[in-house]
Amino acid sequence: MVYKKILLLAASVFVIIIFFSVDFYNDWLESKVLNAFGYSDKATEWDLFDFQIKHLGIEERRAARLGSTYSFCQTMKDFLHDEHEQNPLILLPSQEYMKANGINILIPEPIVLYYESGLKGAWTNSANVSKCNWTVVPDGKGSVVPVKITNKEQLNVIIAEFNKYKQ
Amino acid sequence: MAVAGLIFLFVAHYLSGRGLLHLFKIELKPLATFFLSMICGVILASLYPLFLELLHIPITKTSVGIIICLFTVLLNITTYKKYKFPSPKDLKINIEIYELPFLLFFIFLMALSAWRCFYFPPFARDMLSGPEAIAEYAVREHKLVNSIFSLNLESTNNHLKPPFVTDLQIIYKLFVYPFGEIWLSLITIPFVFWLYTLVKEKLHPLIACIVMLFFMSMPDPYAYTYIVLFDYCNMICYFAGFYFFVQYVSNKQYNYFLFSAFMFGLATYIRPETLVLVAMTGPLVLYYFIKDKMPTSKMIIRLAIFGVVPFLFYYIWMGIFMKFYMPVHFDVGSQIVFGQNSFWDRITAMTKLFIFGIADNPNQDGLNLRLYGYFYYVFLILFAVDLIFFRKKMNTESKIMLYGILVVYIGLPLLGYLIPWVDLLNTTKRGLYKMFPLMMIYFRNNGFLTLLSDTIRKWEFPKLPPQKIQPVIQQKKKGK
Predict the structure, then answer these.
(1) Nearest CB partner across the interface for B206, out of A11, A122, A126
(2) Which pLDDT value is given to residue A126?
(3) How many residue pairs bridge chain A and chain B with CB atoms within 8 Å of each other?
(4) Which of B90, B270, B446, B476 lies 20 to 30 Å (CA to CA) from residue B403?
């Protein structure tokens, strides 16, 4: 009886080895499971279990996962705080606009901006777009800078520019 | 992380889930009772902040703590004396040594999943633009209808989704830590091991392990054991609905029928469009009622119950909360646009892309494998073998599971036909998860796999007829 169980144990190990010899499952195991232990070339440091265990801060984990959107939101939040802006409403450009200007930042939609920073935002098709008093424009160096909107004409020019690209 | 809060919730989930099972007089083996209690307990907890909001009670740590305790007590108060606490012998887990390599791998996968669930915050766009944002501000402002609804919400409809995820995020943010999320592991881990015990009930452990390996190694569903969204939990409840309906058909106990309807209700609560799939299950229920020669009046009442329970779950959110509490108007009827997408185009695209991996876009070639591995192929091959060689041996459980699979296969394109936002690459892709546990239960009845199991058992225990082997193994182990 015992030898049969040992044979079945060997069969189990054999099946698992065969299963993960199949290219597809092998790739999945390496790139999506064992990447946590450095078995994948594509793994970033944030995929690594060793690295994760040394970086347990809530904010750093949030920043790592949410990426450029989170840094955009935090930068805007800090900037507007320094400007002592009480009720900012930020006119957000579309992703198409960002892409056309060679900027690799994922601009959040208004609800995500609010979730990540507490700031309110609007798109060009939002009902309260006329109340926008801040926006972001390309800085020419692959990033964006906040710009205060001081009058209606300026706002209309910016909306017209943003509207050239799909929201 | 507040470990005390996690332990409190863990115990409360288990007790309330167990109380629920006793209310429905559901009798399962001790391990299955534990797993299902956890699943039910967590999902029930997702209703509590909604109840607080409906009663205009601020959502705070105190009020949520009280309502959790209250429901836990209420669910147990009438039944706790009837609890049959398992003896240590009953709790003994029957694991053969040759299951261990597989089980260790499954435990490793789920441990990694739990870690990932804990480590990173929710990041799926559907979460950040809806449930997660609402939960974050509900914790700060003590209400579900909070300042999120004062924003420009043109870009999303995720704030209109049922509060299943939102409420659990609120509870776990209040009691455990800012990312919430850990509740997902408290559902997915018990489910995976419950499913394994179910498959193992009928198949030889080695065969059960192999089919489970195919299930666990589906890249997309596995990823959603640690990425918070609605679909994995919806899949579990939909599966449980069918599983307990099978139990009802085999033992004719009404309580199992009610529990099945309740689980379909929870599935509908998690994803309201499941109501359409539940409606499509109606003919199956009717068929078994007619087969049982049930009196017409009784048949009508039971069919009504089968429909009304899920509808109530749907109505609490859509009919009451949306209508009378939400500041934004949302009319479900207006979302239904017949023929926005062609049913045939959708079912063809779904079949080609997700089952056979044939795509018009070269980037999507082989998408079926990238999402689900070879699971569909395994099912199709085993189903074909069953149809050709074991057709006459196909049992009721198999047939009901196949019906459930068919409902998903037809129901998802139908939903795409009815509701424009039920898209192919997101909603349909994840909606297909609902087939997989049903396929696993089908596998445990599959003619070829059963034959293979019996052959291994005969070889392993040559002196005993196959059908007597399992009880004898258990008796021997109890005797020890």
Answers:
(1) A11
(2) 94
(3) 118
(4) B270
Q: What is the pLDDT of residues B188-218, one digit of tens each?
A: 999 999 999 999 999 999 999 999 999 999 9
Query: In 3D, which of B357, B360, B393, B358 has the Cα closest to residue B375?
Result: B357
Last residue of a domain, one of A13, A35, A54: A54
* Closest residue in B to A13 (Cα–Cα): B101
pLDDT at position A28 is 96
A42 and A63 share one domain? no
Q: Does A143 touch chain B (CB under 8 A)?
A: no
A111 touches chain B (CB under 8 A): yes
Residue B77, number of CB atoms within 10 A of its CB: 10
Task: Indicate whether A125 belongs to any domain.
Answer: yes
Q: How confident is residue B103, by pLDDT bands cut at 50, 70 and 90?
A: very high
Which residues are A148's β-sheet partners? A134
What is the reported pLDDT for B344? 93
Q: Which of B136, B148, B154 sits opposite A126 (nearest CB)?
A: B154
Residues A112, A78 share a domain: yes
From the CA of A139, how many Å to the nearest CA of chain B?
26
Residues 59-78 of B with CB under 8 A from A: none
Instruction: Specify the pLDDT at position B320.
Output: 87
A165 φ/ψ sector (left φ>0, alpha ψ -120 to 50, else beta): beta
Q: Of B119, B129, B130, which is closest to A61 when you measure between CB atoms?
A: B119
Same domain, A79 and A154: yes
Instruction: Determine which of A1, A6, A8 to mutate to test the interface with B (most B C-beta atoms within 10 Å).
Output: A8
* Complex ipTM over 0.90: yes
Q: To which residue do tokens 């449980």 refer?
A: B240
Q: Interhelix angle for B447-460 vs B205-216, to 10°?
A: 140
Q: Per the CB < 8 Å rule, is A115 touching B133?
A: yes
Note whether residue A167 is domain-resident.
no
What's the pLDDT score for residue B235? 98
> For residues B133 and A155, what is the distance between their CA atoms, to the nearest angstrom?
29
Q: Are residues A97 and A109 in the same domain?
A: yes
Given CB atoms, is A62 within the 8 Å cutoff of chain B?
yes
A134-138 and A144-148 beta bridge pairing: antiparallel
Amino acid present at A19: F
Q: Which structure tokens are listed for B349?
A: 């695209």
| Of residues B128, B373, B460, nearest to A112 (C-beta) | B128
**A123 and A154 in one domain?**
yes
The pTM of the full predicted model, rounded to 2 decimals, is 0.93
Residue B472's pLDDT band (cuts 50, 70, 90): very low
Sequence-distant (6+) residues with CB within 8 A of A32 are: B219, B222, B223
Q: Is residue A88 part of a domain?
A: yes
Q: Which residue of A has its CA nearest to B457?
A: A4
Where in the sequence is the domain holding A101, given as residue range(s)? 58-162
Least confident of A106-120, A135-149, B279-293, B452-466: B452-466
Helix (H, G, I), strand (E, B) or coil at A42: coil
Closest CB to B120: pick one of A9, A32, A61: A61
Tell me the residues of chain B between 425 and 464 that have a Cβ less than 8 Å away from chain A: 456, 459-460
Residue of A nearest to B147 (CA): A114
Number of domains into which chain A is organized: 2
